[in-house]
Amino acid sequence: MEATQLSELPCERMVTIVRIVSQYLISYMEVLHAVTTNVAVREFSSEPVSTQHLTQILEAGRQCQSAKNIQPWYLILLRKRETLNKLAELMTGDIDEQIMKRSPVAVAIIADPLHELYAFDCGRAAQNMTLTAWELGVGSCMISGPEPPDRESYRVKAGQLLGVPNNLRFLELVVFGYPKVKRLVRTKDRKRFEDIVFEERFRNSITQQNYGHLQLCI
Fold this sequence. Notes:
Blueprint lengths: L2 H5 L3 H27 L13 H12 L10 E6 L2 H9 L5 H8 L2 E7 L6 H18 L3 E5 L7 H11 L7 E9 L15 H4 L11 H10 L1
Antiparallel strand pairs: 1-2, 2-4, 3-4
Helix pairs in contact: 2-6, 3-6, 4-5
């Protein structure tokens, strides 16, 4: 729309357009903020996660992109202490055992392994949920269970515990809860931008001009 056309719009229409643009910019900044400040939370308060927050978190997973729009995931919400403890018992001796026992709620990610990119897509769904949770003030942590070679047998047993059909695969758990201690993260321990981002070919350093632009976006 041309600027002259905008100036001719009724005041009410102009207010609506400004509001829509503002909401878009705010949403963008909220996502970026969540990405840059989100950290794993392993200690939770005793406050139960509200149904409203859980619904928003699960909806974020459902809305995730996937290759060919296959959506090769199923999500099981776990709130019963008995079930959470039984899953923890399958991780005896692993650090994740105690985290599970402290967690008020978890989401089991179940995958359809017939689709080549199921692990990648389920990871994207998990990321959607954790970022949404963070913006809602809910912490999260991925629970992978025992280290290999015991992980595969753990996944089979966990799937059986949750009634997962044989043609599907129990993949991972993500635990959620309100953080016991709220942390403000200003910087993360991450590899340097120039060590992992290249232009056109591997190890071809990105141009200074583009690098400067990207730095402003991060």
